[in-house]
């Protein structure tokens, strides 16, 4: 029987999984020394440093149909686009990642268009 993780452990698990995936893709990854940072990791893609907020989510508790994935801090404070460059959401139900450049939107409707973007890490590559 798998061990039940608490909310902090789930967040750490997702951060380590994401860092590992980034390293597999050839990116350097750093972690801020303070937990008070608005981002969890810094990804260096050679052209820029990206501030990444990592989330761990399940859709099982969400409504049927096209559930929304809310993007907010543990204190429910919305992120500002000036605080975070990339959002990386580990969707445990799909064992997949949703990674996108953050534009300030507080939620994402999980639908077929989003499913097509799963495990696409293009948001980490340099955009001119």
CATH-assigned fold name:
Trna Endonuclease, Chain: A, domain 1
Per CATH, the architecture is 3-Layer(aba) Sandwich
Element order, helices and strands? HEEEEEEEH
Strand segment count: 7
The shape is globular
On the 0 to 100 scale, the average pLDDT is 85
The residue ranges in which pLDDT falls below 50 over 5 or more consecutive positions are: none
Strand order of the largest sheet: 1-2-3-5-6
Structure overview:
- The protein has 128 residues and is an alpha+beta fold.
- The chain has one domain: Trna Endonuclease, Chain: A, domain 1 (3-Layer(aba) Sandwich).
- It contains 2 helices and 7 strands.
- The strands form 2 sheets. A 5-stranded mixed β-sheet has the order 1-2-3-5-6, covered by helices on one side. Strands 4-7 form a two-stranded antiparallel ribbon.
- The chain starts with 6 loop residues before the first helix and ends in a 12-residue tail after the last helix.
Characteristics:
alpha+beta; 2 helices; Trna Endonuclease, Chain: A, domain 1; 7 strands; five-stranded mixed sheet; globular; single chain; 128 residues
